[in-house]
Amino acid sequence: MSARGVMRREKHYVAVNAHFDANGRLMPESIEWDDGRVFGIDQVKDVRRAASLKTGGDGIRYTIRIGERVTYLFFEDPRWFVEEKVVELP
Question: What's the pTM value of the predicted model, to 2 decimals?
Answer without folding.
Answer: 0.87
